[in-house]
UniProtKB/TrEMBL annotation:
Name listed for the protein in its UniProt record: 3-isopropylmalate dehydrogenase
Subunit structure: Homodimer.
Signal peptide: none
Record's keyword terms, sorted: Amino-acid biosynthesis, Branched-chain amino acid biosynthesis, Cytoplasm, Leucine biosynthesis, Magnesium, Manganese, Metal-binding, NAD, Oxidoreductase
Gene that encodes it: leuB
Cofactor note: Binds 1 Mg(2+) or Mn(2+) ion per subunit.
Enzyme Commission number: 1.1.1.85
Amino acid sequence: MAAYSLLMLPGDGIGPEVMRQVRRVIDWMARRRDLEFTVSEGLVGGCAIDAYGVPLSDETMAQALAADAVLLGAVGGPKWDGVSFDKRPEAGLLRLRKEMELFANLRPAVVFDALVDASTLKPEVVRGLDIMIVRELTGGVYFGEPRGIEDLGNGIRRGVNTQVYTTPEIQRVARVAFELARKRGNKVCSCEKRNVMESGLLWNQDVTALHAAEYKDVELSHMLADAAAMQLVRNPKQFDVIVTDNLFGDILSDEAAMLTGSIGMLPSASLGAADANGRRKALYEPVHGSAPDIAGRDVANPIASLLSFGMALRYSFDRSEEADLLDKAVQNVLKGGMRTADIMSPGMARCSTSVMGDSILRELDKLVG
Ligand code: NAD
């Protein structure tokens, strides 16, 4: 059996605390589930600035490019607020995304039964919710040229950004969405603004053409992005996979995240193109940041990071059985009443980061007998 190479970049703030629990689950998988990992660790963000003067060293970047999967904690914190824009902790993360060419960002929004009351929406609207937002991550208005702020004179300035997409950019992210749908509920909803934007019209036509050519077995629908924003809070369970561009995906994925109620529970994956062997560059990270307000106190919720590793098992290592096992262990622990402070509710048992890790490992042991 070939060993999978994992690069762990815990980063700053609560990053190292939550990633410690991930490491324990990686070791458990290696011990109990016939999986072999070679794990290395590196620095990213503020801790890399302190050590090397840059938020990501060339050596760490090379390790990331060579790894089967990168697992990231979080970067940033008030200590580095004063550093220059190009050297800030987040620049390390942006360099990883750019050089690994991670064009597809996957953000699941899953409501665990035990946490159904954490959502601000009515329980009947969100109970059983399981949707996946696929956001295009390297194109569109955040990168398009021309961009900038021009001085037109007489105290008037003009801010410009350009929304631009090409057919290959649209079709490669749509392909990821169709492939994912085949392993889930077999439905894709593509969102754009074709009524007012030519780039939206092209998006719609290219997704439709790809569907007709290669994915007729998947149910495809189209929705204007503003209508999708409304439908996400009105009836989110109508969706399975949503695919959309960088800007709309930024907004819709945050909206979907809030359906679940807690930022400490949200994983994500960012994937690059598949090589000749079908291997994709991939980065897995929780949606949350470094939470400096609670760092170093062993109170952070490690579940977002653990579920991110679950996504690595599913999408980089094709081990959905183990990913399901981890999901089940998390569900059972929550059902048993264990809660970190961020998801605490009356009558539940409040626990620390490490005790949440202990409980999940115990549950994994129980599940495999
Ligand atoms: P944040 O996600 O770090 O924290 C927002 C709130 O959620 C805080 O109250 C925090 O305590 C809480 N929280 C976050 N994760 C939690 C967890 N796992 N368990 C329990 N509570 C949790 O966002 P922020 O406060 O806006 O940013 C803090 C720092 O993180 C900033 O430096 C920001 O730039 C950085 N940041 C990094 C990333 C990343 O690494 N991908 C993402 C967002 C923000």
